[in-house]
Amino acid sequence: KSPLLALMTESESAQFQRYHDYIPLAGVLLEPLNTSPRAAMGIMFDCTRPPDEAQLETIAVFSHIARLALERQAGNEMLQKTTQAALAASRAKSDFLANMSHEIRTPLNAVLGFSGLLQQTPLAKEQQEFADAIHTSGAALLTLIDDLLDYSKIEAGHLELEQIEFDLCRLIDDVLDIMADKVAPLLLYTHIDPELPHTLLGDPGRFRQVLLNLINNAVKFTPSGHILLRISGVQQQKTLLRCEVIDTGIGIDPATRNKLFQPFIQADSSTTRQFGGTGLGLSICRRLVEAMQGEI
Hints:
By secondary structure, the chain is of the alpha+beta class. The chain has 8 helices and 7 strands; from the N terminus they run H-H-E-E-H-H-E-H-E-E-H-E-E-H-H.
């Protein structure tokens, strides 16, 4: 009695004592199972008939089973708490990234706007080079921020797609106009299946973003030659577009292809790599294409 009560809290001891007063017994065999939550299993017996070996074996078996159940329950509770904490941290990271991207984009747009105006004023040759460098670097930084903002939106589940009519040929012309200065001295060809309808339903902004990203990659990894954007149709219950970007560049190592669409992954991740970037472009493209019920 004394060692047993010493292991109990005051409330547990009082509860056990009340139970002991109602049931005439002379001995207790208690097997501790867990400390948090406090649990024990035992048998009560008359000292004139102490427990035999079979009863002792029984209490040992049931104690073991109960201990395993408590450990499993504790493990599940810990896993649930850890998962909730990880999800909360991920949401906080995505929200922080989205907010910071907005905060950085606002002054950066001003830098680009004023540097663009500066480029249109009479400048000496060296001043013109400085202004061009400011504008080019700012545009590159804005592209990086846009990638981070898109990725944070996707991770936070805030990606929304439009469903509006758009002119396919006009959209491709917009892509060519945007890429005109970047592709030189490469040649950029397009081939659009004449059987495709001119007006389609979808999100033209996100569709343009995917094409620009793929063509930008082609430009980055093609030192000479040409790039071909080919668009054909796959006729099913609705019109699906098959868009291919083909270039004469350095190609991709087969061992690297399976990792291309993972975030922050690049074919060359060394610190001395020749080609920059965040490694988010293709990951964002994949999420956008899948959101538009396609595949890449």
